[in-house]
Design goal:
about 350 residues; mainly alpha; Growth Hormone, Chain: A; about 0% strand; globular; transmembrane helix; transmembrane; MFS
Length: about 350
């Protein structure tokens, strides 16, 4: 007699009962080698995303000085959008086939995009190279990386994931400093190309080291539905997945606004020109992670242009024009905290000593 699968909500609330179905290395040479590969993939995929503040300031003042803040914002908002939105399909494909093919495609898109970025002089060229090609490549690099971590770590997944994420933050510091040093000597084109060679190295290492541990869903047991996204993930009966995704959406919606506009705010506050400043469930983990970040992509798409519009809508000039986007960001962070608090209390109650 056929048996039905348990509701998704039940699998979330009783996730610990499923852990015994799998064994996790939780460390060792093989697992940490994979973690290093994921670190490289996350660095290549998100390092440039976390450098958008420098890029926005330089492009605004030096490459596209006649474009409005809102128009410039759409370049970087559109860049962030596919970085997360493509995950709606990448996650299920990862669960079915593993990370390597996806990372190869992401590497090709990112490298073509970054080398083309060095040739850009017109608005539409920035959209095509940075926003579209690099955005898609970023998604194909970092989404499989997070899924791969889940195959090798369970109890220590937070540690391994945190390690992998440090790469994107590190490159968010190194890439701007690198460009700030190189642009005065080599110009925009060759400075961007050198960043591209760094990404090339990171992509090669990530493709070589990242591998899944669970067998891909192929053969007689596979189904074409295995590589399709599923809205049922959000229908867990208690709203935990939907509210968690909403919380992440709000965090990312607000996050990219200050990351993008803080350098420009600094220039305005100090009265500097742009040139002066520039020189000074484990087997379905990919599906869940990607589904949440598909919603996040819409926040990434709209947050930066909205902030750019608010700067103009305030009617103020200079540093006073930034109060609208500062208020916008703060309110979104408060709403995001409320979402995460609701999920925590709904599932684990008010006892903060209970480890989730």
């Amino acid at each position: 007699m056929a048996t039905s699968n348990p509701p998704i909500g039940e699998s979330i609330l009783n996730s610990t009962s499923h852990v015994s179905e799998f064994t996790y290395p939780e460390g060792g040479f093989a697992a940490w080698t994979v973690a290093i590969g994921c670190w490289c993939s996350m660095t290549a995929g998100l390092g440039l995303v976390n450098s958008v503040g420098f890029l926005e300031a330089y492009v605004s003042y030096n490459m596209l000085p006649s474009s409005s803040p809102s128009a410039i914002g759409w370049i970087f908002g559109t860049y962030d959008f596919p970085s997360y939105f493509c995950g709606v399909q990448i996650g299920p494909i990862f669960d079915a086939r593993g990370p390597r093919e996806l990372m190869i495609l992401g590497s090709v898109c990112s490298l073509v995009g970054i080398f083309c970025l060095g040739l850009c002089t017109e608005y539409y060229q920035f959209i095509l190279s940075l926003s579209i090609l690099n955005g898609i490549g970023s998604s194909f690099l970092f989404t499989p990386a997070m899924g791969t971590i889940s195959h090798w770590f369970n109890a220590r997944r937070g540690l391994a994931s945190g390690f992998a994420f440090t790469g994107s933050g590190l490159e968010g510091v190194i890439f701007p400093l690198m460009l700030q040093s190189l642009i005065p000597r080599l110009g925009w084109g060759w400075s961007i190309r050198l960043v591209g060679f760094v990404l090339l190295f990171l992509c090669i290492v990530s493709v070589v080291l990242c591998r899944s541990r669970l067998p891909p869903k192929r053969g007689a047991t596979s189904c074409w539905r295995d590589v399709l996204p599923s809205a049922a993930i959000f229908r867990d009966g208690i709203g935990a997945m939907a509210v968690t995704s909403a919380g992440v959406l709000l965090v990312e919606w607000a996050y990219f606004v200050p990351v993008t506009y803080l350098p420009t705010y600094y220039l305005t506050r100090k009265g500097l020109s742009g040139r002066q400043a520039i020189l000074c469930g484990t087997q379905d983990y990919g599906r869940y992670y990607a589904s949440a970040y598909t919603l996040v992509s819409f926040g990434c798409l709209t947050g930066i242009p909205i902030a750019g519009s608010l700067m103009k809508a305030t009617g103020d000039s200079g540093r006073k024009s930034f109060w609208g986007y500062i208020l916008f960001t703060g309110l979104i962070y408060i709403a995001s905290f409320a979402c995460f608090l609701w999920v925590r209390v709904r599932i684990k109650g008010w006892n903060w000593k209970v480890v989730w």
